[in-house]
Amino acid sequence: MAMADVREVYSHGGNTSTYAALFSMGLGVGKPEELAIAGILHDVGLVDVPAEIQEKPETDWTAVEKETYQKHPEFTVNILKKRKMILPDRVLEIIAQHHEAFADYFDYLISINSGKPLMSPREVLDFISEFQTL
Q: What domains can you pick out in the chain, each with its CATH number?
């Protein structure tokens, strides 16, 4: 993985951790500390996804490459269990389901990524609230 990619993954984990804890506190849902831990660890499994997949634009992935990438939450849980990290079961559940997590998606939408327009936090909240009213 290129150095810029490592910084991006690290930054994304920190951002997701912060957003998850803040949304938890603000909405009174879940335990902020569990969401923060899950957020910081959620992409550890990317180390088991080949660099050539991670370096390609998502739109250029083959079906097999997409399937491999989508397994990284499972890879993360396996790594954490293998390292015998003592974590609440809920943290492992959140990690395994993190592609459905609001904080992960929120950080993706407000981050600068090639091929996607930059959205402000307010625009993201408005965008997401539109789906709730449908």
A: 3-132 (1.10.3210.10)
